[in-house]
Amino acid sequence: MQQPAGDETPQAAGRARARAIATRSSSLSAVVRLLILLLLVGGGGAIAWTATIPSQDHVIARAMFEDRDGTMTIDEVTGAAFAPVAPILTRGYTPSATWLRLTVGPADGGPLVLRIRPTYLDRVALFEPVPGRQGVWREYVTGDRTPFLEREMPSVTLGFTIWPTGPATTYYLRLTTTSTSLMHAEALVPQVAALRDLHIHVSQIFILALLLFILFWTASDFALNHDIVVGCFAINQLFFISYNVLIMGYGALIFPNAPAGFVDTLTSVSIIAAPLFSLLTNRLLLRQFDLIPLARWGIDTLLLALVIAFGLLAAGATQQALKLNALVVALIVLLLPLMAFGTRREAPPGRRVLRVFYVIQAVALLLTMLPILGVLPASTWNLDANIIHGLLSDLPMFVLLALRSREARERGIEAQLALDLTRGQLELQRAQFEMQNRFMAMLTHELRTPLSVIRLCVDTAKVAGEPRRLIEAAFGNMEGIIDRCSFADRMEQKGLDVVRAPVDVAAALRAAVAASSEAARVALQVGALPSVTSDARLIATVLHNLIDNALKYSPEGSTVEVTAAAEAGEAGPGVRITVENGCGRTGVPDPTQLFEKFYRGPHARTKSGSGLGLYIVHGIVDLLDGLITYDFIEGRARFSVWLPCSALPSSKTMTICEPPSSTP
């Protein structure tokens, strides 16, 4: 049948939807690649531009002294023994106060900007000598615990304006912080300091643009697919963006009138929350890879440690909380290879991709955390190590989830196509089934009238003897086929009404044997049977079809054994009826197709039949909440029907019925 031009088949609609999804995914992937390329090129350009900015650091010498109790005054410190120190101070997490002595050369009589990084240091005090007054010092304070409007220099970076004189001027910086004591101080002319601040702004714009893009993609993907891994990563992105905004120094600008310590507390919360949700995202992602127990235990332990860090932060032990957080991040270095190579099952985007990204993260973390913990000397890039580490952790996870999402979309398209194909096939089968049922209903109805006319003519002709017997047998076969076709059609159309009432199974068996075509060949054995609450008419149909089938396909003259007994099995009390016969020339049927509609064995076509008898039996037994099984044991076919009953009889006496001597 030709499909009308204006109609659309389910398969065509499915293919159209799949093409639309694929087109949108391809367009989105192209936009993603373009944006990432622009951001990377812009960030690389900003870094290259920074390399062209001259340093012109006027600090001649640096020395450090540790005030363990944090109680020494500037007058006491000036007489202490200072030790030379590298340009970047690396002290790790320490409760001590750290004094840094700077010897600064003049700048042709003009001011210098004493520029201090990173911006998350709690409190940095500058002690500047008062010209012409020996031993007198002015004190200025900055840090992320100092409100922006109270800072000596209005900038996102920490700093002071100084006026060195003579061949050199000595300044003292006192650092106290709950974060890592990592500090770099340089004395620059204002123009160079402004260029470096401008570079920071440009770089941070690109970083924040990249992070916001990742957040936008993550939120969009989660809204589309409701993937819990992507959802957790979106929360991680929110904390990581907050962390970057605060760690870059913008917290003081956003909350200029906030009370002292407010921005510092927000920074500490974001510092701990970012790795917590990052680790949780990895934990959820790796579930589909079937992670080994040791790696799962490691992730869960570190997650617990971060929860404890939050508890310490809430209790006011900020430095202990941040130190524990840094230790957890450092331990992730050891855990990442175990996570990468401890997977036992392949999953999107693939274990090989997973291992590459986890190794990159491990190396980046190692280079980042060791200077922060004070284990290794720091370099210039360690001043932004927290941001760099976050990006090197964030970008691989974003790429992993993007690859995972793309593969999930491709699988979804394939599944949609397969679903549409299956729906089309089911629709075709349903149409064929309905056509077949209509044909069978028409055929059975239209054949009955011609058969009645033929029978009437045969009766009028008064045919007798062997011809009469053959004619009656043919009539019986044809009417049996018509009845079974009609019965099967009603069964499939849910047109069989089950009228439940007490049924005497033994009496039903005797009646079925007596009504069979060769009752003399049937050996019936019936035990003491309970009453079964079921449909007597349907049970009679089951017994008639099973006995008729056994007689038809067993060797001529052989005995068909029919037994019935009460049984208490796993399904409860019931009656089991067994019909067993030998196999004749028609051979052994295929047990996988035995109960299918119209199935007949390859050698059974020499016998008259419709292939509906066992199909009807199976349908009726299911309708009566029973079970039917087939076994082929030692050359004999055995059909067993189990019907439920309420209780078993108390007596188990067996009644044996011998085969009748003649056909009734």
UniProtKB/TrEMBL annotation:
Q: Which UniProt keywords apply?
A: ATP-binding, Kinase, Membrane, Nucleotide-binding, Transferase, Transmembrane, Transmembrane helix, Two-component regulatory system
Q: Which residues form the Histidine kinase domain?
A: 442-647
Q: What class of enzyme is it?
A: transferase
Identify the EC number(s).
Answer: 2.7.13.3
Q: Does the keyword Kinase apply?
A: yes
Q: Which Pfam families match?
A: 7TMR-DISMED2, HATPase_c, HisKA
Q: Which GO terms describe its molecular function?
A: ATP binding; phosphorelay response regulator activity; phosphorelay sensor kinase activity; protein kinase activator activity
Any keyword Transcription regulation?
no
TM segments? 30-51, 198-216, 228-253, 265-285, 297-318, 324-341, 353-373
GO biological process: any one? osmosensory signaling via phosphorelay pathway
Matching PROSITE patterns, A to Z? HIS_KIN (PS50109)
Q: What is catalysed by this protein?
A: ATP + protein L-histidine = ADP + protein N-phospho-L-histidine
Protein name in the entry = histidine kinase
What organism is the protein native to?
Ancylobacter polymorphus
